[in-house]
Design brief:
This protein is mainly α. The chain has 2 domains: 75-278, Growth Hormone, Chain: A; 301-422, no CATH class. The chain is built from 19 helices and no strands. The chain has helices at 2-19, 31-34, 63-70, 78-96, 102-107, 113-145, 147-165, 171-183, 187-198, 201-229, 232-235, 245-248, 252-272, 283-289, 293-297, 302-328, 340-369, 371-397, 401-415. Helix 4 (78-96) packs antiparallel against helix 9 (187-198), helix 4 (78-96) packs antiparallel against helix 13 (252-272) and helix 6 (113-145) packs antiparallel against helix 16. It is globular, with a radius of gyration of 24 Å. It starts with a helix and ends in a 7-residue tail after the last helix. The relative contact order is 0.12.
């Protein structure tokens, strides 16, 4: 009786933890501890109908494997996790690299400056829109064909169309390249899955903290590549003389470099990563243990969490899209009048600041304030962040450039703390 009552008690505790979360509930819960797994595998007395099932859901697990999972923690495969983190970094690099020069690139096609913001928002958002639509497809493909093939396919396509974007000469060419790059940007789903499958319950939190740090690092690196290599004939005339290929295609060097980073991740994934999909598992047993999308959405707390996350991402991505346009727009029209290189510097500072907030401040503040209170603080900070930009424009309009340059760097560093809401 003791052997059958203990699993039932564990199940009740797991369900209770999700049904009644408190302010200190860990944010990185793994599937085994969320209580969202189906109970169809359990008999009424709490025992499993799959006596040899491993804790990770594979029905072919042995008793020794189960004991290893529940007993001592196996070492985290650092090489695999680091390769996956490097792969994860390429998606924000590809996404953010065009932000410093995007407004100028659109303006050079003949679009009035008053319409640059509209077209910038359209082109930048298409990447995320197409990526979102195809997320489920990539997840299902990874379950059917394997994680590694889908990941390599995704990275390879993103490498090509990210590189080609810099050769666009019209709005429609930009839109096409950006949409095609988004079509292949499904690596984020596969990478998260592979990190989870490479780790135990004990090491997942550590691995995913690395994952988030490297993604924020990508936000830092992307604008540096994009802004630092744009207009090379003007920045580096001795290396790229006037009249060369890169004078006609001013932004090709930036996107070629970005595509090369994505290509390097493709190669490291091809030769370094191991497949994590267990194709020997009984598909019938796995199907029984999986919930449908409707059942997941009806789970306690899930709709509220998704609503909050959607709201936060709307603010975050909206700010991300508008920010370069605001920085590029002339002071007389309400912006800051920054150059491509200055925009790259601002975005890089923001990315680095977000990484430091997540790495150093977030663990302490989340533990001290609780998740709910921290979200409330970030909600207030968002309003102050948005209000600060037009206020600083007024400072520039009044000719107080010294005050402007003294205020905006700390304003940006402190304001980047809103990333903790993600």
């Amino acid at each position: 009786m003791a052997g059958t009552s203990e699993p039932a008690a564990n199940t009740r505790r797991r369900t209770s933890m999700v049904s009644n979360p408190d302010e200190n509930t860990p944010l990185l819960l793994v599937p085994e501890t969320t209580g969202l797994e189906s109970n169809s595998d359990l008999k009424p007395n709490g025992t499993s109908t799959e006596p040899s099932a491993a804790p990770d859901g594979h029905a072919n697990g042995t008793g020794a494997e189960a004991q290893e999972e529940e007993g001592e923690e196996r070492p985290m495969p650092y090489r695999q996790i680091l390769l996956l983190c490097y792969t994860a970094m390429t998606e924000p690099i590809a996404y953010f690299a065009i932000f410093p020069f995007m407004p100028e690139m659109i303006f050079r096609t003949g679009v009035p400056q008053s319409s640059v913001g509209f077209w910038t928002g359209i082109i930048e958002s298409l990447f995320s829109l197409v990526q979102m639509v195809l997320m489920i497809f990539y997840g299902r493909a990874a379950d059917r064909f394997g994680r590694k093939p889908v990941l390599i396919f995704s990275l390879g396509g993103m490498s090509v169309f990210t590189a080609l974007f810099g050769m666009s000469q019209t709005l429609w060419q930009m839109i096409l390249c950006r949409c095609l790059a988004g079509c292949f940007a499904g690596s984020v789903v596969t990478v998260r899955t592979m990190i989870s499958e490479n780790c135990t319950k004990q090491s997942q939190a550590k691995a995913f903290s690395w994952y988030m740090f490297t993604r924020n690092l990508g936000i830092f690196i992307g604008p540096l590549i994009g802004g630092g290599l744009a207009n090379p004939t003007e920045q580096f005339p001795k290396v790229f003389p006037p009249g060369s290929f890169f004078e006609t295609y001013r932004y090709a060097l930036s996107t070629y470099a970005t595509g090369a980073v994505c290509l390097s991740a493709t190669l490291t994934s091809l030769f370094g990563l191991k497949e994590t999909l267990d194709k020997t598992a009984d598909s019938g047993a796995k199907a029984k243990s999986q919930l449908s999308t409707t059942e997941v959405l009806k789970s306690p707390g899930v709709p509220m969490v998704l609503s909050i996350f959607g709201y936060v991402m709307l603010l975050g991505l909206g700010y991300t899209a508008v920010n370069p346009v605001f920085l590029y727009t002339d002071v007389e029209l309400g912006g800051w009048g920054f150059s491509d290189q200055q925009i790259a510097g601002v975005l890089a500072i923001a990315g680095a600041s977000q990484s430091l907030w997540m790495l150093l401040a977030f663990p302490f503040l989340q533990k001290r304030l609780g998740t709910g209170n921290l979200l409330r603080v970030c909600a207030v900070a968002w309003g102050l962040m948005f209000a600060g930009y037009p206020i600083l424009n007024e400072v520039l309009r009044h000719g107080s450039e010294t005050a402007f340059w003294a205020v905006w760097p700390p304003f940006l560093v402190i304001g980047s703390g809103v990333a903790m809401a993600y």
